[in-house]
Design brief:
The chain is of the alpha+beta class and 155 residues long. 46% of the residues lie in helices and 19% in strands. It has a three-stranded antiparallel beta sheet with strand order 1-2-3, with no helix packed on it. It has a three-stranded mixed beta sheet with strand order 5-4-6. Helix 1 crosses helix 4, helix 3 runs antiparallel to helix 4 and helix 4 crosses helix 5. It starts with 11 loop residues before the first strand and ends with a helix.
Length: 155
C-alpha cells in the first residue's frame, strides 16, 4: 500500500482487526520513510458493478460515493455511525446479490430511500428531495403525506 503522505510504495501493517460490522478488515499502517500513519480498509467484492445513469451513461459503482450521499442526508442527525455503515453495507450486499453487473441508478436510489426511511425521517426527506428532484413545496407535502399514511398503517 502506497503511503498517502510521501508516496513510498513499501508501508508496514502495524495492526489488523475486523471492522465493527465484520464486513471489512481495518489495518493501521506506518511508513518507514516519513513515519506517517494511516488506516486502510479491505472489503470483499463479489463482482464488479457498474451503474447505468438516467442519462444512459455508465460508471463504475463506487461504495464511497454511496456512503457519502447517505452521510450528506444524515448530516447533523442523531444516528450512530455503526448503523449508517451497516445500512450502506446492506445496500452493497443487496446490489451484489442481484446477480446483475449493471444496475440502474434508480434501483440504488430506491434502496437508499428504504434504508433512510428506517433510520431517520428527516434524512429520508432530504435524500428524496434531491433524488426525486423536488421543485416546489407541494412535492414536500406529498412526500410527508406518504410518510404519515405509512405511519398510520403501522400504528
Amino acid at each position: 500500500m502506497r503511503c498517502p503522505f510521501c508516496g513510498n510504495a513499501d508501508t508496514q501493517v502495524k495492526d489488523s482487526r475486523a471492522s465493527e460490522d465484520g464486513t471489512a478488515i481495518r489495518r493501521r499502517r506506518a511508513c518507514p520513510d516519513c513515519a506517517g500513519r494511516f488506516t486502510t480498509f479491505e472489503r470483499v467484492q463479489l463482482r464488479e458493478l457498474s451503474v447505468l445513469k438516467r442519462s444512459g451513461r455508465r460508471t463504475a459503482f463506487d461504495r464511497d460515493k454511496l456512503a457519502k450521499s447517505v452521510q450528506v442526508a444524515l448530516r447533523k442527525r442523531p444516528v450512530e455511525q455503526e448503523r449508517i455503515e451497516r445500512m450502506v453495507s446492506g445496500i452493497v450486499r443487496q446490489l451484489e446479490s442481484l446477480g446483475e453487473t449493471e444496475i440502474k441508478s434508480e434501483a440504488i436510489g430506491q434502496l437508499v430511500m428504504e434504508g433512510l426511511k428506517n433510520l431517520d425521517d428527516v434524512a429520508y426527506v432530504r435524500f428524496a428531495s434531491v433524488y426525486r428532484n423536488f421543485r416546489e413545496a407541494k412535492d414536500f407535502e406529498n412526500l410527508l403525506g406518504e410518510l404519515n399514511d405509512e405511519d398510520k398503517g403501522q400504528g
